[in-house]
Fold this sequence. Notes:
single chain; alpha+beta; 5 strands; 19% helix; disordered C terminus
Amino acid sequence: MRPDFQVLLDGRQKGWIELKRPGHSTDGTRWKGREATQWDKLSARDALIVSNGTHAQFYPLGIPEGPLVDLPTAANLDTWDPAATAGLIQRLRAATPVLRAYDRPPVLGTDADAGGG
Length: 117
């Protein structure tokens, strides 16, 4: 199970982003059913941002770090402060994730890609 987006910086793995629908909790410990199982896997990631389009939270190894960040929307564009979002991005940039073999994207055109193993 991979999150929705892989984050690369200078071609190197830096983290992951998981997107949820607007209004959905960014706190994976509150998710139920299939999503609770998903959180069990996501919380093992070294550097994960969970966002519902209006808020985002940084989770290194499933532990929230820093504040829940308001993202810019049409409703708050006049009052939105970009400093918190910049801090979220800085936390992700500063993370030192470990790239595991199952995280690597497949290389197109290889035998493994064609199902040949």
